Amino acid sequence: MGSNLGSRYRWKNYHSVAHVTGTGGMQKHIESCGKISKNRIEQKEAKITQYFNSSENKSKDLSIKQKNKITNALAEFVVLDGRSFETLNGLGFINLIECVLTTGRTLLESSNMNANDLIADSRTISRNIDKMYEKRKSQLITLCKSIKSFVITVDFWSERSYELENQTSLNIRKLVNSILEEFGLSLCLSSYIVSDNENKMRCAFNDVKRRGCSDHYLNKIPEKTFTDEKNIELQEPQKMFHLIKEIVEHVRRTHRQNKLTKKLQTFSKTRLNGAFCIFYVFNEIFEEIPQVLNTKHLLSYSLIDNPRECTGFRLPTY
To answer: Is residue 90 within 8 Å of 77, Cβ to Cβ?
Structure first.
C-alpha cells in the first residue's frame, strides 16, 4: 500500500514538472527558429530540397527536343556500332554517361541530372530505327539524283530480304531492278555489272556489260589444283592436300582445337579461297599440330614435306 502511494506521488510530481519545464521548455527554441526561418525566406536562402533529384527539376532542364535528339543519337550508336539495344541499359554504359555528365558539370553550370534521365528505354530506341531508316533513305534518294555513276553488289549468300519464290535469273534481275527503282536508278546498255560466274548470275545480266569477278577467277586456280583429280601432273600437291584435309577434319571432329593457338580451317568449295585457307592456317601452326594427333594421323603428318610451298603465291582473303 505504501509502495503504491509512493508511485502515485512520484508520477504526479513528474507530470507537473514536465508540464512546466518539459514541453514548455522548448517554447523559446521554437520562437527563435521561427524568427530565423523568416529571415531566411526574406534573404531567399537556398534550400536543401533544390539539390534533390526530383522529376520536377528534370522536366525543366531537359526539353522534348533535347530528349529526341539524344534518342536519335543512341539509335545511331546501336546501328553504326552493331550493338544490342540492351547495351543502353547496361551498368557500364550508364557509368560512362554518368562520367561524361560529371565532367560536363565541372565545365558548365551545375546540373542535378543523371544518365538515366537522358537515356530512353531500349524499346523506345528500337522503335526509332524505322524512322531513322526512312529519313536516311530519303536523303540517299536525293543524293542519287545527282550522281553520274554507281556500283552495286549482288551476293545471295548473305541476302536475307529475298522474298521471291526462287532464285531464277528472272527473279534475280527483277529484285535488282526493283531496288534500283526505289532510288531512281536503272540499268542500261552502257552499264557494267561485276558478279560471280554462276550461270544464273550471267543469265540475269546478259543484256548489259557483265564482267566476271577476278577473285572468283583466282579462287579457281588453287581449287582446281588440289581437287581436280583428272590432272595427273598435280598428283603430288593433291596428295598433300588430302593428307592435310584429313588431319584438319580429325582435329575438328575430336574437339582438340583448344590446344592450338589458331583454329584450323576446313575446306569448303562454297567458301571463297577455301583451298588456300586450309593451307595457310595449317602452315601457321605446323609445329603445334602433332600434340593433338593420334598414331594414325601422326603417320599422315610425317608424310607432309613442306606445306609452305603451296601458300607462297597468294595472300588470304576472308
So the answer is: no
